């Protein structure tokens, strides 16, 4: 089908990509097709589909490598609910992640193993999960950076949108922790890989789906709402008290950290590297927020104190972007998901060994977010004057419970510096994605620097 590498197709993709949340904003100058890995076609196959590997050349020189499975069918014969990207010579090109036949085929092959051209399907040894073509997939239906579908309420297939050379960290961590029998991650069932520029690249992961899971953010939102229901009651005695769950979450994160330290190498401390990276990030963000820049000297002091405190710690693999949306409470315990680290950070930094306190800081920042966002969303004038104190007491109580569940969070100056660094990261993230939320990390930076935590 000659249209698959046509210049008209790359122009249509140039217009389509910026509309996709996973693209991450901006308008590419050019879209290049690096590979079109055919999945099927022919009389016994419901659609002609290929996994496209694209490079989006952005203004300023950034090059984003992306994955976009595309389907091709005669106009009028595209599956219901799929989005047509363009029509070329009577052939409609559509986003194949919304074609259940294509996604079911990918899931089925990942469970079964084998290869189709340059696509390699690698089932996890010992997994007994079978998927057949008779049971279609459904979209996960939540906002995300990649694209996931659920198969038969048993399996979840995540297709990575941004591609990086080498094993994807999420796939790698899940593979090693599944093999180590770690109960804090969803077991890996298989991966889809290919080779690009002579290097292996992970395209997708298939995992067991926790159908009964509720994410930590939803639980926190419900709990913080309850904390306001009876102002006469102690926060810990309120109906939706979360502290016992936060204690268990702390213990689960500690177990995951122990498993990561065993499954991967550990390293020496890197106090100057840690401090240097925090200051670099601060300076990049201060360019956007002059009010932040005015506190550089105080920031530096906090970070240097932390570097001093880090000399006796060892570094290891960590989650890297742990927050309440990255933990799922199932009927049997807490699961940590999405080990890709902070989106937007270079891959080498995301897999670099770090101090476990990075994840603790991420979670306590998230509790602050849950409290502050609840306050911000209260209808104007409806809140009683004590609401702010009460939700902040809620965050403080849950922070204590989480850290107590973790056990030994390490020296206080380290946690303080990592919280500050996380708040600086969040400020940059919010300015790019949700400017009306920037108040939350901005307030946190001031509070930490003022010593009010
Ligand atoms: N194993 C799982 N069981 C149940 N739900 C899951 C599982 N893994 C992910 N999810 C759901 O899918 C959503 C997106 O997953 P995530 O790995 O964070 O994707 P992304 O990398 O695109 O952000 C999560 O917020 C969660 O709701
Ligand atoms: O889940 P992602 O890997 O996409 O993480 C990014 O987006 C998160 C928002 O969805 C962002 O998290 C921030 O907002 C959360 C509430 O929506 C809050 O719980 C987190 O504490 C806060 O950092 C995350 O920083 C970003 O990397």
From TrEMBL:
* Residue intervals of the Aminoglycoside phosphotransferase domain: 138-368
Top-rank taxon, per record: Bacteria
Q: Which UniProt keywords apply?
A: ATP-binding, Carbohydrate metabolism, Glycogen biosynthesis, Glycogen metabolism, Kinase, Nucleotide-binding, Transferase
The pathway to which it is assigned is: Glycan biosynthesis; glycogen biosynthesis
Q: Does the keyword ATP-binding apply?
A: yes
- According to the entry, every stretch annotated as the Maltokinase N-terminal cap domain falls at 16-99
- EC number of the protein: 2.7.1.175
A Pfam family of the record is Mak_N_cap
Q: Give GO terms: molecular function aspect only.
A: ATP binding; kinase activity
Q: Name one GO biological process term.
A: glycogen biosynthetic process
**Gene3D superfamilies, per this entry?**
3.90.1200.10
- Matching InterPro entries, A to Z? Aminoglycoside_PTrfase (IPR002575), Kinase-like_dom_sf (IPR011009), Mak_N_cap (IPR040999)
Catalytic activity of the protein: D-maltose + ATP = alpha-maltose 1-phosphate + ADP + H(+)
The record's top EC class is transferase
Could you say which protein family the record assigns here? Answer: Belongs to the aminoglycoside phosphotransferase family.
Subunit structure and binding partners: Monomer.
Q: What is this protein called?
A: Maltokinase
